[in-house]
Amino acid sequence: MSLHRYRRCWPPQPPVCACESSRRYLARSARFVSNAQFKRQSRGSRRSIINGNNSSSRASFCILLHNMFQRLLDEFRAVPVARQALLVAAGLGGVALVSAAAYLAKQRLDNTPPKRWRKAGELTDIYVYPIKSCGPVVLKAIDCAGTGPGQELLRDRTFMVTNEDGNFVTARMKPKMVLIAPRYDAPSATLYLQAPGMPELRIDVGELARRAAGSGTTADPVNERSTVWGEGVTVLDCGDTVAQWFSRYLLDKNGGYRLRYYPHAHSQRRRNGDDTGTLHDETSYMLFNEASVTELNGRLENKVTPLRFRPNFVVRGPEPYAEDRWKWVRIGEVVFRYRIPCLRCVFTTIDPDTGVAHPDKEPLRTLKQYRQIPELGESPALGIHLGLRRTGTIKVGDSVYFA
């Protein structure tokens, strides 16, 4: 029986970019399997040779492939060196092109919002934290941009405390930071800060923005360097008066800490790509499910509130930990893509009302008993980090959808 009947499935067809000698060799390679062998096999046996359904067939198949590629390699070696280089370059270029196209297609698919949504509940709280690790400003409505939520010049985590070397300082090191209470006056673009035992501090955010743009009364280039989780950013120093206020409160001396302002409308960090935000730990937005903290409180002696976990959005309606399964979130008409779970650390042990860490490391210790993700280490997960995919305005009471 002629072997030509099987050439549609055997031998495997060569790739389009193979050299002509490779094509000719693969076309001849079927001679390794004799016509007599095929005559002795039933249709099922022939299929087993091709598919490798038994050990002897698999062995024959492996030997056949070895011989085929060995012959191909020998013929490639016989090609002049210049042509070898050309073939290798063409092959690598083709692979790179295909890989890039596949990556871009996947990125586009991954970032295309779904057409069908399911209602989860409604938005009950919106929080913005102007200064990293300090208290929140509670809002009824918020504008959502790529760098995070905000209202005009009031933006989430655009200020941070640093040491003199520019390394960021958080409440993990100085728990009293959570007691610094901000208040924002929109008409004057002024941020007011209060802290126990300290006079009220006034920060003119409008003037800082003008200085950053080079049009203020004391225009300064944004050339100060600071570091957030090992990534460098350019920031604007807020001045000696502000630095002294923070140093007195946190260090009980007149120097040592500075306050830096991030004026840029885009992220300079790549921790989570374009979704990293301004001075955030992970991404620009974090969502929390009210029922999840209610379920957690059933395990705790000392109850906690959602504010212990510093979310931007609190949702009421879903069952506990339902957010773990959400890939997309829509609040009103603003669309977010799930990025990563929010892994919890010792920050959660600090009471936002007292600035004191729990002596037994609660609620972190309890969370570790049932909310760990093995592949992500020992830190338990609670809440989800989001990346913005459709901008807009969000207000308390908006319906929350998921997909």
Total number of helices: 9
Main beta sheet, described? 7 strands, mixed, barrel
**From the helix content, strand content and strand pairing, which structural class follows?**
alpha+beta
Distance between the termini: 57 Å
The radius of gyration computed from the alpha-carbon positions, rounded to a whole number of angstroms, is: 31 Å
Mean pLDDT: 85
Shape: globular
Can you give me a brief rundown of this structure?
The protein has helices at about 20-30, 35-40, 45-50, 55-80, 80-110, 205-215, 240-250, 290-295, 365-370; strands spanning about 120-130, 135-140, 140-145, 150, 155, 160-165, 170, 180-185, 190-195, 200-205, 225-230, 230-235, 255-260, 270-275, 285-290, 315, 330, 335-345, 380-390, 390-395, 400. It is α+β, with helices and mostly antiparallel strands and about 400 residues long. The model is unreliable at about 1-55 (pLDDT under 50).
List keywords for this structure.
403 residues; alpha+beta; 7-stranded mixed beta barrel; 9 helices; 21 strands
Descriptive report:
- This protein has 403 residues and is α+β, with helices and mostly antiparallel strands.
- The protein is 28% helix and 27% strand.
- It is built from nine helices and 21 strands.
- Helix 1 runs antiparallel to helix 4 and helix 3 (43-51) packs across helix 4.
